Amino acid sequence: MGLFTKDIQTMDDLFLHGLKDIYYAENQIVKSLPKLIEKATNRELVKGLKDHLEETKTQIGRLDQVFKKLGKPSEGVKCPGIDGLIEEADELAGEVADKEVLDAAIVGAAQGVEHYEICRYGTLIAWADSLGHDDVVRFLTTNLNEEKAADKKLSSIALRKGVNRKAAS
Ligand SMILES: [Fe+2]
Ligand SMILES: [Fe+2]
Predict the structure, then answer these.
(1) How far, in Å, from the CA of 118 to the mean position of ligand 1?
(2) What's the pTM?
(3) How far is CA 23 from CA 47, 118, 127, in A?
């Protein structure tokens, strides 16, 4: 950010800023997911988080493609939103003693991150569409669909696979 100038002038600048923001977020998620995986006990939860970690790495590759198509270097910009969500997840996980309650806490924290990503990708797709960047919409949509699927999977782990029930008993 410039000290004397406002760096975001046009809608294209705003779109690029949003891309850098989600690029930073995805990279922070790759760094933080292993910590949650380590703390999780439920097998389905561990597998779900591990699968999504791999997916997240692929999502970063898609964002690299988006930057390339726009003729810009791949780079992130510090995103306090995701930093806050991750910090909160780490803090909460550190405060829960019971393993089963901890699993429920991890699902909730992970879903917070997924919802953040769903919101950001939804906006980016709408902006890309308005700007006529049709060639990048499909990359962003694939990422969005993976976030939605990850969120659904987490709901199913919490509700159908018994994480919440065991935590409450
Ligand atoms: Fe993601
Ligand atoms: Fe995600």
Answers:
(1) 8
(2) 0.93
(3) 24, 14, 16
Q: Which ranges of 11-98 would DSSP assign to H, the alpha helix?
A: 11-39, 43-69, 80-95
Q: Which two tokens stand for residue 35?
A: 């910590």
Give the type of residue at 133. Answer: H
Ligand lying closest to the C-alpha of residue 61: 1
Cα–Cα distance for residue pair 21/41, rounded to 1 Å = 31
Q: Which residues surround ligand 1, an ion (CB under 5 A)?
A: 26, 56, 59, 117
Task: Report CA(151)–ligand 2 centroid distance (Å).
Answer: 8
Reported residue count of the chain is: 169
Interval 53-76: pLDDT, tens? 999 999 999 999 999 999 999 999
Residue-wise pLDDT tens digits, 89-100: 999 999 999 999
